[in-house]
Model the fold of this input.
Amino acid sequence: FDGDNVVAQAAVFFTAGYETSGTTLSFTLYELALHRDIQNKLRNEIIKGLKMSGGKITYEM
Done:
């Protein structure tokens, strides 16, 4: 996935009418905003996964 594809998928995710999924993602983002330590841990795990996959987002990450 490239950046545009991720943004498009997120837009579909929110507008497709899946209230429970949207609510869950909203609460997740809210909690990440409140807890910088968890946000940093997640960021580091994403960076590590990207390095392991050659910079590509894959399902195996």
